Amino acid sequence: MEIKKSINLDVKKTVENSVCGNDEFHFFVDELTSDDYMPTYAGMADEKYTFDEMNDEFFRFLTDKVNNNGIYIRLVYATACEIDGEAVFELEYGESHEQFTTKELDKVLVFEFADFGVKVKDSEVTFGATVEGDCRQTPYFAEFGSDRANKSFISLENPLNKRIIEIMDAMIK
Predict the structure, then answer these.
(1) How many CB atoms lie within 10 A of CB 144?
(2) Which end of the chain is more exposed for a tag (fewer CB within 10 A), N or C?
(3) Angle 11-19/56-67 helices, nearest 10 degrees?
(4) How does pLDDT run across 123-162, given as a tens digit for each residue?
(5) Reduced to 3 states, what is the DSSP secondary structure of residue 84?
(6) Are 146 and 128 in contact (CB under 8 A)?
(7) Which residue range(s) make up the domain with 167?
(8) Strands 96-102 and 71-83: what pairing?
(9) Strands 86-93 and 96-102
(10) Three-state SS for 110?
């Protein structure tokens, strides 16, 4: 399973595909600092650019950030619960919604909500998730399989993550 790819990703098409006309989709792109923290999470970027304003200026802004420290594009939003010995995940992406269930409770983390996406830096695309940060709760990007978060949350052995990676791979344009 490939977590990093060097590809010519079309940021505009991928962002448009990630929200796909769903104006209730959670904020879909963040700037990243050099250490993968998200300083504009619910900050400058989403105040300056709303869903209705995905115009040329917005995409120039993103292109500059891609070439700087990178951006994080949210592609999948998930909620979860445990029912009768199964982990049940509700996944939202683009205009789609699906339910994913697994009995492998020892390999998944049942969370209240989470989002998954890609870090885009120059021509490198890395699959991962937003992880809650330090005491200020500043989120950061962590790639699947890394040790930057709860091991079961971003583990490549996690059956949910295998499905998430398939979804994200199909959403990248």
Answers:
(1) 24
(2) N
(3) 120
(4) 899 999 988 866 556 788 999 999 888 888 999 999 999 9
(5) coil
(6) yes
(7) 4-171
(8) unpaired
(9) antiparallel
(10) coil
Q: What integer pLDDT is reported at residue 42 of this predicted model?
A: 44
* Total-model pTM: 0.85
Q: Two tokens at 88?
A: 């049940």
Rounded to whole angstroms, the maximal C-alpha distance in the chain is 49
Tokens 């789609």: give the residue.
96
Output the CA–CA distances (angstroms, integers) from residue 149 to 13, 48, 109, in the order listed: 29, 30, 11
- Residue 5 structure tokens: 């790819």
Specify the amino acid at residue 38: M
Q: Is 80 exceeded by the pLDDT of residue 120?
A: yes
- The reported pLDDT for the residue numbered 5 is 66
Tally of domains in the chain: 1
pLDDT in tens, 27-79: 577 888 889 988 754 434 444 455 556 778 778 878 888 888 898 988 998 99
- Rounded to whole angstroms, how far apart are CA atoms 19 and 84? 33
* Of 116, 115, 92, 99, the residue nearest 3 (C-alpha): 116
Give the integer Cα–Cα distance in Å for 47 and 8.
Answer: 28
